[in-house]
UniProtKB/TrEMBL annotation:
It comes from Methylobacterium terrae. InterPro entries: SGNH_hydro_sf. This is SGNH hydrolase-type esterase domain-containing protein. It comes from the Bacteria. GO terms for molecular function: hydrolase activity, acting on ester bonds.
Amino acid sequence: MRNPNSQTHALEIFSSHLMPARPDAIPVLQLGEVDCGFVIWWRADKLGEGVEAQLYASINAHLGYVDQLIASGYSQVVLTGAVPPTIQDGQDWGEIANMRREVTTSIAERTELTHRYNALLKNGAQNRNCPFVDITPALLDPATGVLADHYRSDDPNDHHLHSARAGKLWAEALNRIEASAAT
């Protein structure tokens, strides 16, 4: 929502499809690794504000959008945790990694910020009676505490999670929400 390099204008596109509220839809808001792995750090550096200030500004923007969706008439909005960073320390390939080269924070620090971000999102979801899904614990390598190689894309130039392996975790987590709503 606050990506300075957004090429897609995704927020405007999503909003045009989500509002006014559609009675047959339940929005699921998925943040990418870019939110904690790049934007907060980049804005803190470029704007001269601390990471902490950017963390809360990002959370407030995200939860503010959730509030807009609820106010527009959605009875339920599902929030998901941001996924852990995928770009490893010193990685030097592709346009995305090159754009993020300006952020020199280690993957361990970026992962720790993701944990903090997700805890704040979970709290925000609970305060709004919204379901919250976070698959981060399943994605991490217990030995390193960062994203397990198993969940990285097989394409070394792709900074996204492995779609089938991570997709299975997302499907299971989202299905648990549906199952608990039915009971």
